[in-house]
TrEMBL record:
UniProt protein name: TLCD2 protein
Pfam families cross-referenced by the UniProt entry: TRAM_LAG1_CLN8
Lineage: Eukaryota, Metazoa, Chordata, Craniata, Vertebrata
Keywords, in A-Z order: Membrane, Transmembrane, Transmembrane helix
PROSITE patterns reported in the protein's UniProt record: TLC (PS50922)
Length: 173
């Protein structure tokens, strides 16, 4: 979280070997959440409706799992968790849709906040992570760099497509 960077400025220098107390546990719990959500989707949703999220969760589980097992890149995983701030508004949007509250001020306000947090916490964060990975490629082992690069190459287009869908659905009907 941003607070972690204020309290632990060394994270901005070393996202590989440095992490504050509790960060490893946070990333490990996040792996558990993504695993549980993955299994829940497999059991309770049709594959054609959830394949993108299943794919997303697979990438996150692999990347975060590496950080947990190796006790490295935990700081990088913390940065990636900033993306989940936007998930609050994505999930609220889904709840409002299910409650048939699309034509309410609450839905409109959430749509605006959702897009704003999407740009800041998804698109900008992923761009920053991609930049960090590229700038630090000499210091990252080849296999880890490959996993990170593939992860970013998968997540970035997925998030841009989802942003376009949200924009089209909520603002350009």
């Amino acid at each position: 979280s941003p607070r972690r960077f204020c309290l632990h400025p060394e994270l901005s220098e070393d996202l590989v070997g440095t992490h504050p107390p509790g960060a490893h546990s946070l990333v490990a719990v996040s792996v558990g959440y993504f695993l549980e959500d993955f299994v829940d989707m497999l059991c309770n949703q049709k594959f054609h409706q959830s394949w993108e999220l299943l794919f997303h969760h697979s990438v996150v589980i692999v990347c975060f799992g590496i950080a947990v097992v190796l006790h490295q890149y935990v700081g990088f995983a913390l940065v990636a968790l900033l993306v989940e701030i936007n998930s609050i508004f994505l999930h609220l949007r889904q709840i409002l849709l299910m409650a048939n509250l699309v034509h309410t001020t609450c839905y409109r306000l959430n749509s605006i906040i959702n897009l704003g947090t999407y740009v800041v916490f998804r698109i900008a964060t992923l761009a920053w992570m991609t930049r960090w990975l590229f700038l630090n490629r000499e210091n990252v082992p080849a296999a880890t760099y490959a996993v990170g690069t593939v992860g970013m190459a998968i997540m970035t287009p997925m998030n841009i497509i989802l942003f376009y869908r949200l924009l089209r659905s909520d603002f350009f009907k």
